[in-house]
Design brief:
about 150 residues; 5 helices; alpha+beta; 3-stranded antiparallel β-sheet
Length: about 150
Amino acid sequence: MRHKVAGYKLKRDASSRRALLRNLVTSVIETERVVTTVPKAKAAKPLVDKMITLAKRDTLHARRQAAAFLQTPAAVKKLFDKLGTRFGPRNGGYTRVVRLGFRQGDGAEQAMLELVGSELVKRAAERAKRREERLKAMKEGREEGGEEK
């Protein structure tokens, strides 16, 4: 019986498990989505949520707690500068686990751990990039048309 046994062991000892989860959480914060196995995604999800909750507090103590867990200073900076403000009005549920199917090599079930709303941010960035390219092409077309006259 597993009464009052919390968490996932992931077939690793404590130090390996901690290192794996720290790296996974850092990657999710830096890239906003990570493809991994379902148990790893489920184990990392509450940790990512906890980091974003720290970012919403935005105190020196919270920054130091996040820096002690995350692997890179860039992840800490992004967490507090961008993600903390983006998820400010939201009460929890900052991440989602999307099942993707089974891996070809060993048949492990894959899942994508992503931040909620990251698809909107990426779509908006792509839309802005396309708009800039269209405006640039239109300007070049006008300049070429003006020189020919």
